[in-house]
Write a structure and sequence with these properties.
Layout (H helix, E strand, L loop, with lengths): L4 H16 L20 H9 L4 H16 L2 H9 L5 H9 L3 H6 L3
Helix pairs in contact: 1-3, 4-5
Length: 106
């Protein structure tokens, strides 16, 4: 079971977000790095060096997942990893491919 770094970091950012950022200062994205290219922590570092705000992107993605399908959707994706790869579990639970979902973040 491999969980992409963007998903792990997004959950972490989502949980900690209320504690360190004023809710009126919600992050916004100027550009999005393909989620499929953010599998490992080294991918995060490289993307940051390229100018991407991957932590905000990951936070906004998890927030969008929860907004669209509810908090239980995070758990459902993780449970489905027992039987399928991450992006298949994501698509099953979100009813969108990761590429379609990514377009919703703009």
């Amino acid at each position: 079971m491999t969980i992409p770094s963007w998903f792990n970091e997004g959950i972490s950012e989502y949980v900690s977000f209320p504690y360190y950022i004023n809710k009126q200062n919600k992050p916004s994205l100027k550009q999005i790095k393909s989620f499929r290219e953010l599998k490992y922590s080294t991918d995060f570092y490289k993307a940051q060096q390229e100018g991407y705000d991957v932590y905000s992107q990951s936070y906004l993605a998890v927030r969008k997942i929860i907004d669209l399908k509810g908090e239980k959707s995070i758990q459902n994706i993780l449970i489905d990893l027992n039987d399928m790869d991450f992006y298949s579990a994501f698509e099953k639970n979100m009813e969108l491919s990761i590429e379609e979902f990514q377009k919703l973040l703009y």
